[in-house]
Amino acid sequence: MRNFISVHDVNDINALVQKALSYKANPFQDRNLGADKRIGLLFLNPSLRTRLSTQVAARNLGMEAIVFNVDKEGWALEFEEGAIMSGNTVEHVKDAAPILGSYFDILCIRTFPSLKNRDDDYSELYIKQFIQYCGVPVISLESATLHPLQSLTDIITITENRKAIQHKPKVVLTWAPHVKPLPQCVANSFSQWINAWGETDFVITHPEDYELSEAFTKGATITHSQDEALKNADFVYVKNWSTFKDYGKIYENDPAWMLTDEKLKQTNNAKVMHCLPVRRNVELSDEILDGSNSAVTQQASNRVWAAQAVISEILRSL
Ligand code: CP
Q1: Is ipTM > 0.90 here?
Q2: Which of 132, 144, 197, 249 could cross-link to 113 by cystine, CB 3.0-4.6 Å?
Q3: Stretch(es) of the chain classified as CATH 3.40.50.1370
């Protein structure tokens, strides 16, 4: 594996999941694999889980992990080719990325979308520019359209919980209300990975006008009826996203879309997933988050093993 940007960088999803689960069982089995190697974690946006789990994972492999909060501590970066930099940006990615590549063996980058211009965001300009100019492998810590470490974690968590299920599991991705327009990254990425995995009956449910890009959802059943989607579900993944077509908007925030214990009765005692952070009693109810069906803590703790499996694959390719 050279870079980890999307599911297309993975040859065998199940093999990567098993590697992650092997690290979960024995975290220090490759404690010297990354000896004398350094990983840089660049954050252009906030994070709790991604930042800490990737640091822990790198440390388990013997690497030194250095975090740089570019948004707060770095120079404002320019990404436009041929830009006349007379505005607020101070340093072009063409100049910064090769320097960062000389300091680190692997670079990890979090760069959220602007939600202002769909074509710009969906071109993945920022992460592609880092890949082009840094000269070392790049791991996405969430880009403008995808969150691959989260999606790998999600499949690890489904794999762990599907052991008790005899049939092909039904996985439902449901839109939930939120107070702010959020990126489509987690929903896009989950759809892309679940479709590529191909081991589930995958249903996406959302209000009208909240369609995601077909580039990620093709293969899933899509319905505007949450009740219909929830019937006999084994896993319910809850996530808000803003509109894709009329880009980055909130059209409706109907609280009836928030998952409750009453709605969960329609499912096959489903495990409820969410990438976190979550706005309680807006996106997901207290009763679900504090109840026995919630898998969110297991899911977030699995972020370490997903990151460790990916870093280990890249280290072996250096
Ligand atoms: N799920 C996730 O990426 O969490 P953070 O934004 O806290 O890293």
Answers
A1: yes
A2: 144
A3: 7-146+303-317, 150-300
